[in-house]
Amino acid sequence: MKEAAVYIIAEAGVNHNGQPDLAFALVEEAARIGADAVKFQTFNAAKLAAANAPKASYQKRTTDASESQREMLKKLELGQELHKALRSRAIGLGIEFLSTAFDADSLAFLLRLGMPRVKVPSGELTNAPLVWRTARSRLPLIISTGMATLSEVEQALAVVAHAYNASAEPASLEEVWKGWSNEDWRQSLRSHVTLMHCTSQYPAPLTTVNLRAMDTLAGAFELDVGYSDHTDGILIPIAAVARGAVVIEKHFTLDRTMAGPDHAASLEPAAFLQMVQEIRSLTLALGDGRKAPQTGEWDTRLAARQQVVAARNIRSGAILVLDDLTTARCGHGLEASMLWGLVGSTTKRAFVMGEPIEA
Known about the structure:
- By secondary structure, the chain is α/β, with parallel strands linked by helices.
- The chain is built from 15 helices and 10 strands.
- Strands 3-2-1-8-7-6-5-4 form an 8-stranded parallel β-sheet. Strands 9-10 form a two-stranded antiparallel ribbon.
- The two termini are 53 Å apart.
């Protein structure tokens, strides 16, 4: 990840509707709107879903309700040659090409293609064999946690730690958990793994977002956190950045009214561009966390702060009492907090009312 920057993923996903021209247009728009990466989804429909696997409710609303999940997914597959062409186009436009693998063969293909980082999607978080193979690439890893309990996240991380450190694939979950007991194995995840908080509803109501769960993930595992957003609009991903997200993923489409499972829960390019611009501005405003005067504040500090001055004419050699002293802005002299300490001291010279007091 870029130091002190938010990595923004334009999730094209399956919003290409199986059409190459639309897929290329999504890559080009992702580059134009300032995303760091454009991401698709790579799968074999026959391996991913059984013939009679049901659709989710939101998929029934946005696609042909009479078709099976496998039939829907089959229409949304991208061929290997198209993957290669899309990757080449993205790199030529200066953004990263990513794709999420949903089966072992798709993962192997993507690794041969050359991914700069890999992702475990929410639905595969508990698919320990696929998580292990994904982590075994030892590429920077993004793990999405939609629908998950904290214990399921921990198990996935234990699998990742095993993949990073063991010599071979585990024979059992017990072997994975034994490895998780090793502090060095747990530490191996630092700076390599980003946990993405997510609500797997499309779109996700605001009442389900629970951004404070980002704090829970960060505190439990001491890893970077990000946010994969499915809400309407741009407010929540911006709020997630303010809360500490270092990665933002957001679905985008050329037209939210298109038929397809994810278009309605996506941003069109103009809104995505606005989100990127707001996040970049917010990142500048977040700063480094140190509390100290900014360079531009010193002149204001000099003009705005009060110093100790004489409340009335004071003779030389007088013993100062509280009524002799007050404060006013005068640009130099003793700061106002020193007033009490002057009470009881003897003046070395006379002061006229309003004149800064010297120690």
